[in-house]
Design goal:
The complex is a heterodimer of chains A (111) and B (521). In chain A, the strands form 2 sheets. In chain A, strands 1-4 form a two-stranded antiparallel sheet. In chain A, strands 2-3 form a two-stranded antiparallel sheet. The two termini of chain A are 24 Å apart. Chain A is 20% helix and 12% strand. Chain A has one domain (2-103): Alpha-Beta Plaits. Chain A has helices at residues 15-19, 46-50, 70-76, 81-85, and strands at residues 2-5, 25-27, 33-35, 56-58. Chain A is built from 4 helices and 4 strands, in the order βαββαβαα. The relative contact order of chain A is 0.19. The model of chain A has no long low-confidence stretch (mean pLDDT 94). Chain A is globular. By secondary structure, chain A is α+β, with helices and mostly antiparallel strands. In chain B, strands 1, 2, 5, 6, 7, 8, 15 and 16 form an 8-stranded mixed sheet that branches. Chain B is globular, with a radius of gyration of 22 Å. In chain B, helix 6 (197-204) crosses helix 16 and helix 13 packs antiparallel against helix 15 (429-449). Chain B starts with a strand and ends in a 5-residue tail after the last strand. The longest helix of chain B has 24 residues, at 357-380. Chain B is of the alpha+beta class and 521 residues long. Chain B folds into 3 domains: 2-214 and 317-391, FAD/NAD(P)-binding domain (3-Layer(bba) Sandwich); 217-313, Flavocytochrome C3, Chain A, domain 1; 407-496, Up-down Bundle (Methane Monooxygenase Hydroxylase, Chain G, domain 1), CATH 1.20.58.100. Classes of the chains: A alpha+beta (111), B alpha+beta (521). Bound molecules: flavin-adenine dinucleotide and iron/sulfur cluster (2 copies). Residues 2, 20-22, 24, 41-47, 58 of chain A line the site of one iron/sulfur cluster. One iron/sulfur cluster binds next to helix 2 of chain A.
């Protein structure tokens, strides 16, 4: 679930508010998005992928977690990791160009 | 109330909707696309990404592709449709590459690999393409009901703009429903917008479903997480709590063993059959598969992790709105269906469309439905949007009794009947009958008492849609007294030659099923 909006990193571009498929955020009075409906979050990582300043963190668990420490997340490289891997952001190469994948044998992949 | 008018209204925002919108616009008509979420990030493809049924037009390759799932699907698919979808998908994927809009990877032989699409990249580009084609996009604007003309044909839809806080209506010559399947808010990756709304709206104007018994798909994910990407579990070994190998368990052909074991306790997994090269390639192919592991601090290749199965209903199941023509028309004039909102039996039979077929179906059926709807709207002429219309929505909008039902409570009740493995996955007639009784009673309660206003209209309609989809599922599952495709019955484990037919279903206050005699060629 979405767990962190960093007020230090956020530039109030409203992108996450717009792209979240389940409308989890509201715009705060100070322009920083507020996680208004966390229980609607579907843990899809789309907000993170679209945030230009890596100000968001989506935890993998589908239920709320204790608070995360932003500095520790940044140091571990997890903040903004999905955006980096799919190659979004200035100067990056689209990740899809490298998506060759392993050989999966002869059985058809069915899901 | 915002009033709009257009030739073609597309409901949805995933691959089926965007291909419908693009091909309707290219046919020269005015198009509005309304998505519940945001067109570009919403739906199962945007979050998950898909392998695609992309097969070179060599007769032997196409023949093998068509034959590969025929038996698995219980021989309910049709060769003619498979051929059409393979052809249209091949053209669409080449268009994606040649128009320079999707960056495909280059394979070992120096040629582009065009049999897969990363979700965020694909859907971001589809949004750009439809906007360039002149499509008006309404984000965060869930459609809540259809509008019909005096003759019963579909003439638009109404909905709610949840970030603007007001209702809207679109009068249209024709409507394409591309709202995705129904995964019962299970939190399987990217599926919480897929609540089966399109099927409810279609039924309210008299359309039919088909194949709703093929609706018990479950995806593997690490316990308490969302990422039900399953291809790489072909490298997995599954274990019991005590560390012993769980015999018979596999991602393909052994998933019910996992379900059975999960009813008793925990199941663990390790991707220990991947060598170094495969491990590196997996990371590049599906970065979202590894998000969960990296954030849990688990190395899936060397450490065992607990897994779960999340319901994916008709997203990776195959049932949906019944299609009655090559242009994806339904039994109701002016109404078209595409993608997971429609049945995929034409190409999958009774088997899952996951892994390749669903993605191919979404783009092909979307493209056909868009053209079909455009042709229908053009034939109606300019007077189409001046028709008198009436709203078709019932449950959750216009209660028949005291307004005393609660959407969240309804959703919990439905989930209690459709998520458990011992009800929906490992199906038995007695259990299905009991579950259906609860669902019928839930429907009666919500039809009488559920009433959403403002933003809550969306939740109320989702609750009604989940209930309706669940009832068609179990009624159809009970009608199939055999095991065929994914519709397996513990009490009827064999395939029965006399039941080599599809099953139509429909109805709201009274749910019905009917065998469809001929399987299309
Ligand atoms: C994890 C996962 C992996 C998958 N992998 C593969 C694969 O490898 N290969 C494959 O072929 N298939 C795969 N599938 C299936 C595939 O993702 C779907 O078949 C495909 O996304 C269907 O496209 P669609 O456009 O019909 O629906 P979706 O992509 O789900 O889009 C539905 C859209 O409708 C919108 N909507 C819903 N209700 C309303 C409403 N009331 N009003 C307005 N809009 C509404 C939603 O917001 C959403 O934008 C996978 C599915 C999952 C869950
Ligand atoms: S996308 Fe990022 S920068 Fe933009 S408003 Fe959201 S958190 Fe702030
Ligand atoms: S993870 Fe998905 S559902 Fe959750 S806040 Fe981000 S975009 Fe919204």
């Amino acid at each position: 679930m979405i767990e962190l909006v960093s007020p230090e990193r956020c530039i109030s571009c409203d992108k996450c508010i717009k792209v979240c498929p389940t409308d989890v955020f509201d715009r705060g009075a100070d322009g920083i998005p507020v996680i208004a409906r966390q229980s609607d979050c579907q843990t899809c990582f789309q907000c993170e992928a679209n945030c230009p300043t890596d100000a968001l963190f989506v935890a993998p668990q589908t239920h709320p977690q204790p608070p995360f420490d932003e500095l520790a997340l940044a140091e571990s490289g997890l903040l903004g990791s999905y955006r980096a891997q799919i190659g979004w952001g200035r100067g990056r190469t689209p990740g899809s160009l490298r998506a060759v994948g392993p050989a999966l044998g002869t059985a058809p992949i069915t899901s | 109330m915002q009033e709009l008018s257009t030739d073609v209204l597309v409901v949805g925002g995933g691959p089926a909707a965007t291909w419908a919108a693009l091909d309707a616009a290219r046919a020269g008509v005015d198009v509005v696309l309304a998505d519940k979420g945001y067109c570009g990030t919403s739906g199962a493809t945007a979050a998950g990404g898909t392998g695609v049924w992309y097969v070179e037009p060599e007769p032997a390759a196409r023949e093998a592709a068509m034959a590969s799932r025929e038996a698995l699907g219980g021989y309910l698919a049709g060769r003619r449709w498979m051929g059409r979808v393979l052809e249209r998908t091949y053209d669409i994927m080449n268009e994606l590459a040649d128009s320079g809009s999707y960056p495909f990877p280059t394979g070992p032989d120096g040629r582009q690999l065009r049999n897969g699409l990363q979700g965020p990249e694909y859907m971001r580009r589809m949004r750009i393409r439809i906007r360039r084609a002149g499509v008006r996009v309404l984000d965060h604007s869930p459609v809540t009901e259809l509008l019909t003309a005096a003759d019963g044909s579909v003439a638009g839809a109404a909905g709610y703009r949840r970030q603007e806080g007001h209702g809207y209506r679109v009068r249209a010559g024709a409507v394409v429903l591309a709202t995705g399947g129904c995964a019962f808010l299970s939190k399987a990756l990217g599926t919480d917008t897929n609540t089966g709304d399109g099927a409810l709206y279609a039924a309210e104007v008299g359309a039919e479903m088909s194949g709703m018994e093929f609706s018990n798909a479950y995806g593997i994910a690490p316990e308490h997480t969302s990422v039900t990407k399953t291809a790489f579990y072909s490298f997995a070994t599954f274990y019991q709590e005590d560390g012993a190998v769980l015999e018979g368990a596999a991602s393909q052909g052994g998933r019910s063993v996992i379900a059975r074991a999960l009813l008793e306790g925990k199941v663990y997994c390790r991707l220990d059959r991947a060598d170094e090269a495969a491990r590196a390639a997996m990371r590049l192919a599906q970065p979202n598969f590894f998000l969960t592991f990296d954030r849990l601090g688990v190395d899936p290749f060397t450490e065992r992790f607990a897994v779960t199965l999340l319901a994916e209903g008709t997203v990776r199941g195959t049932g949906g709105i019944r299609i009655t023509g090559d242009d994806c028309r339904t039994t109701v004039p002016g109404l078209y269906a595409a993608g997971d909102a429609a049945t995929r039996e034409e190409i999958c039979g009774g088997f899952t469309g996951g892994g390749s077929h669903n993605a191919a179906w979404a783009m092909s059926s979307g493209s056909w439905a868009g053209r079909g709807a455009a042709g229908y709207a053009l034939a109606l002429g300019a007077g189409a949007v001046g028709r008198a219309v009436s709203p078709a929505g019932g449950a959750g909008l216009r209660p028949l009794g005291n307004r005393d039902a609660d959407a969240r409570e309804v959703i919990r009740a439905v989930q209690g009947e459709v998520l458990p493995y011992d009800k929906n996955y490992l199906r038995h007639g007695e259990v299905l009958t009991g579950a259906l009784d609860v669902l019928d009673e839930t429907w009666a309660r919500l039809r009488s008492g559920l009433h959403g206003t403002g933003r809550e209209v969306v939740a109320a309609r989702q609750a009604a849609a989940l209930t309706a989809n669940a009832r068609w599922m179990y009624r159809s599952a009970l009608a199939r007294t055999e095991s065929r495709g994914m519709a397996r019955r513990l009490d009827f484990p064999e395939q029965d030659a006399d039941q080599h037919h599809r099953i139509a279903s429909g109805g709201l206050d009274r749910v019905w099923t009917r065998p469809l005699t001929a399987v299309a060629a």
